[in-house]
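Encode chain A's predicted structure.
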Amino acid sequence: MTEPLPPSAPAPVPATAHLHPRIVPWQHVFAWYEEAMRLFKRAPATWMGLAVVTLLTELALQAVPGALALLREVVTPLVACGLVYAAAAADRRAGVTLAYAVAAFRAPVGAIAAVVASALLIYGAEAFAGWWIADINLLDPASSAADLSPAAVVGIYAIGILASLPLTFIPFHALLERAPPGAAFAASWNAFALNTVALLVYGALSLVLLGFSLVTMGIGLVLALPLWAASSYAAWKDIFGVRDVPEQAP
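Encoded structure for chain A:
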């Protein structure tokens, strides 16, 4: 009988996890979005439905005051992970359902912790940018709802996108491959270090999508969120040499 691991032992890394990134040409960024469109077209209505659920969750929690506003930054990213599961399901030509919006809540504690920690780091960058650029407190609904110039809004979200690039692949490692949080963070950071130019170009295209969403009064997010998730999934497979959909995918 195998001896149980002592409480202090780190969680084992699954043998099937892809944690060693490779360098890819920056031009692959366009192939990531091309693949994202292919995945999106397999279930466009459900993809957009998952985006709507994510946006409604964000709006519902937006009025929560004070420190409790951080609850929004815990719950919404987990709901948004439904798009991660949708990418994996569409990739293997399985049914994509709205039930994926709650799938991350059933993930192992370590996977949830990795997703939430990465989301809080990105939110921290955006909060700092909000204070630095526009002197607003994103934890205060009244303050964050203040009128902002388009340049301020773009600046805040540009900082958020930039901060998200080294963390891009954490949800895929943690949710789809059950990699421990430390391993997921390290792999995602290494991928960014090896592919900085490609991911900066990817971030620039993401900013263009964000601009489209702002111009359409947020309606464009129903399309932008699926494309961000699906293109990130395509980038993860490309950079980490993932051929098959991980078995942990729902």
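Confidence is low (pLDDT under 50) at residues 5-9.
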